[in-house]
Amino acid sequence: MKNDIGQRLREERERLGLSQVAMSDIGGVKKLTQLRYEKGDSFPDAAYLSALSRFGLDVQYVVLGIHSPENL
Questions:
Q1: How much is the pLDDT for 3?
Q2: CB neighbours (10 Å) of residue 63?
Q3: How far apart are CA 54 and CA 69, in angstroms?
Q4: What is the pLDDT of residues 12-57, one digit of tens each?
Q5: Nearest CA to 71 among 17, 1, 15?
Q6: Could you tell me where the DSSP H helices lie in the chain?
Q7: Alpha-carbon distance 15 to 58, whole Å?
Q8: Cβ(13)–Cβ(20) under 8 Å?
Q9: Confidence (pLDDT) at 31
Q10: Which among 26, 25, 35, 30 has a CA at the least distance from the CA of 56?
Q11: What domains does the chain contain, in order, with CATH numbers?
């Protein structure tokens, strides 16, 4: 499950045209943490997801694998 979330997080980063560094800066984490999220080695917290949602991240898709209506 974590690996699926990491994959979807990477898909969203690429959809938004962000580098790992840019996304980690927006989310308030280090680049290594961003890499761990995308690899499925750790799980992003609510504060990280909330910060990125303000930049267009589809949090529902990342967590549940279902696109929110705004992002279809």
A1: 80
A2: 16
A3: 16
A4: 999 999 999 999 999 999 999 999 999 999 999 999 999 999 999 9
A5: 15
A6: 2-15, 20-27, 31-39, 46-53, 59-64
A7: 10
A8: yes
A9: 98
A10: 26
A11: 2-71 (1.10.260.40)
